[in-house]
Amino acid sequence: xxxxxxxxQPELRLSDWFNATTDSTHMDMRVxxxxxxxxxxxxYNESVLADYYTKYPVTVGLIVFAVGRYLLYYLGRFLESAxxxxxxxxxxxxxxxxxxxxxMPWIDLDRHRTLKIFKIKQARRWQDVSMIRMKVISExxxxxxxxxxxxxxxxxxxxxxxxxYGLETLGDSVxxxxxxxxxxxxxKVPYERNESSEAYIAAGEGDFYYHAAVxxxxxxxxxxxxxxxxxxxxxxxxxxxxxxxHDESHLNKYFFLHRPSKILSPxxxxxxxxxxxxxxxxxxxVWNFKNYELLRNH
Length: 298
Ligand code: 2GW
Ligand code: MN
Fold this sequence. Notes:
two-stranded antiparallel sheet; Spore Coat Polysaccharide Biosynthesis Protein SpsA, Chain A; alpha/beta; 8-stranded mixed sheet; 298 residues
């Protein structure tokens, strides 16, 4: 298949926009051992990025699911904050997957922003809502999104943008460090340990624990990521196994086998109830509050 591809253009070199020189607060956490940048506040040069993308403009997609009560509680505020902070001055298409058009909130969007709404079926079990996302996303990218955008992010809806979330996050395949585990060695993170699951990662293996609430990349790469994860999830279903953190376990396996080309610091998906350490400077996106009583037990 042929995806809408980035135009013929000079590559933006890492050394032009990214400062890999480590300071004391980041220790050795700015570049991975496979040479992918780990983007923190103060590691990127915004004006270099802005100049480059003014010359070679891109369109960025943001896919979000809002089903059942998540549609009522989260979608409006998520979109309002995204309109304000996500890819400011860039062309953005929001792809909203919901189960009831009549609950779509009214959002005033800025110039260069548009939204497309799609109806999906309500899943039977809550675990399936998040897992079915991989399949639905891959189908939509294949059918239309790859001809509409250059880059695409997939995000949980129970989050809020708090500061500019911009061009520094664009890359071939982009993974998000999980707030709870980013300082932990791979031996201690909650990868799937059941050998009969497709998401299995052996003890001592793995690089980082990634949060499935944010991932992205070029449309081509995100198609690959979601297709592979959906396939693995279906295989597990057939074998009657379910990975401990559902789609997140499969995403971690995928990024273990196909390492991401860029990693985002926990500032790009922070839990405000965690104590902020000096490495967390500008928080760009935060988890929204979760009332499990209201959201899940019904
Ligand atoms: C999910 C769980 C239980 C009850 C409802 C739902 C649910 C999720 C729902 O009723 N409607 C809905 O639209 N969702 C979508 O799935 C929504 O976009 C939500 O943000 C996303 C993931 O569910 P969430 O946010 O409740 O899961 P978390 O915050 O515990 O997320 C992590 O783990 C998940 C797997 O268990 C996913 O991997 C997720 O990406 C992770 O952030
Ligand atoms: Mn979530």
